[in-house]
Specification:
mainly beta, five-stranded parallel β-sheet
C-alpha cells in the first residue's frame, strides 16, 4: 500500500508492505497504523495523530516478526501489545522516529547502554539482559519504557511523562528502577479522561524500585508481581505524590523521636507490595565534588 492520505487510518491484517503514506488522524481514539498480523513491512510513513486522544502513532498488537524502518511519528509514538514473547519480537531500528527522536527497540541483546547522549523517542527492551537505560526523556507514547521478558537491567534517572503508561514491565524480573521521574500518565477514554498507571507490572517480580518520583493519579498497577519498593533505611523508598503521613520519628522501625524525611508508616500498594520508607520529599542524588587529582568527596544524601 502506497498512498497519500488525510484523516485516514491504515489497519494491516495480512502480509503487506505499507510504505510512503502521509497519515493524519483527526478522529478520536485511533492509531495511525494498526498491525495485528505477522510479517508485514511498514516503512517511510509519516503519521500524525491529533495529539490529544491517543498515544498511538503505530500500534503492533498481538503479532510478530514485523519490520519497521524510516517511519516518522510526529505527535504520538509507538505501541506494542501482546501476551507472549513472540508478540514483542519485531525488527524496529533507529531510523524510526518519535517526535524527531530515534526508537531504541532491542531484541535479544545483552550489555547495552542507552545513555543520555542518545536521547530516545521510545525504548523497548525485549528478551534482554544487563541493559542500562539512563538519562532519557520519553513522552507521548502508549508506554514510555517497555520491558518484556527482560532481566537484570537498570532503568535510572529518566523523565517519563505524558505517556498513557509510564513504565511497563511484562514477565521481567531482577531489574533495578531508580531515580526516575514518572509523571502525568493518562489516556482519554470514550467517556472522558481515564488515568493509567505510572508503573505497570505483570508477572514481574524481584525488581528493586526506589528513589523514583511518582506523580500520577494512578500510581501503580501490579498483577501477579511482588517487588521491593525501597532501598532500606536510611536511604528510603519512593516519593508518592498522593501519599502523606506524619514524620515525627526516625530509625529502621520509625519509633525513635525526631523526623528524618521519611513518613513514619509504609505506603501499602497491595497485599504483597509496600514501600516501607516512603519519602516526604523527592529524592535528590548525592553530588560528587572533585577535590584533587584522583580524589573526590561525597556529600551526605539529602532529601529536601
Amino acid at each position: 500500500m502506497h498512498a497519500q492520505a488525510k484523516a485516514y487510518q491504515a489497519c494491516v491484517r495480512a502480509r503487506n508492505v505499507i510504505s510512503g503514506n502521509d497519515i493524519h488522524i483527526e478522529r478520536y481514539f485511533s492509531a495511525g497504523i494498526t498491525v495485528d498480523s505477522p510479517h508485514n513491512t511498514i516503512s517511510e510513513n509519516i503519521v500524525e495523530t491529533n495529539g490529544i486522544d491517543t498515544r498511538e502513532g503505530i500500534t503492533l498488537s498481538g503479532c510478530s516478526n514485523n519490520t519497521l524502518t524510516g517511519n516518522q511519528m510526529l505527535q504520538e509514538g509507538l505501541n506494542l501489545e501482546g501476551s507472549t514473547l513472540v508478540h514483542f519480537t519485531h525488527s524496529i531500528d533507529t531510523s524510526n522516529l518519535v517526535r524527531g527522536k530515534p526508537v531504541y527497540y532491542l531484541v535479544d541483546q545483552t550489555n547495552v547502554v542507552i545513555g543520555p547522549s542518545l536521547q530516545a523517542g521510545f525504548v523497548g527492551l525485549i528478551n534482554c539482559t544487563n541493559i542500562t537505560v539512563e538519562g532519557q526523556t520519553l513522552t507521548h507514547n502508549e508506554k514510555g519504557i517497555l520491558l518484556a521478558y527482560t532481566n537484570n537491567s537498570r532503568i535510572a534517572n529518566n523523565t517519563v511523562r505524558f505517556n498513557s503508561f509510564g513504565l511497563v514491565l511484562h514477565c521481567s524480573s531482577n531489574n533495578t528502577v531508580f531515580g526516575n521521574n514518572v509523571t502525568h500518565s493518562f489516556a482519554r477514554a470514550h467517556n472522558g479522561w481515564g488515568w493509567k498507571p505510572g508503573i505497570e507490572l505483570r508477572f514481574s517480580s524481584h525488581n528493586h524500585i526506589y528513589h523514583n518520583i511518582l506523580n500520577n493519579d494512578w500510581q501503580v498497577y501490579s498483577y501477579n508481581s511482588a517487588n521491593v519498593w525501597d532501598a532500606g533505611y536510611p536511604l528510603g523508598g519512593n516519593y508518592w505524590s498522593d501519599y502523606s503521613d506524619v514524620d515525627v520519628c526516625h530509625g529502621e522501625d520509625q519509633d525513635v523521636p525526631g523526623s528524618d524525611g521519611i513518613w513514619d508508616h509504609p505506603n501499602i500498594i497491595d497485599e504483597v507490595n509496600l514501600d516501607r520508607y516512603p519519602l516526604v520529599n523527592p529524592w535528590t542524588p548525592t553530588p560528587q565534588i572533585t577535590v584533587g587529582v584522583g580524589g573526590s568527596v561525597r556529600r551526605p544524601l539529602t532529601v529536601k
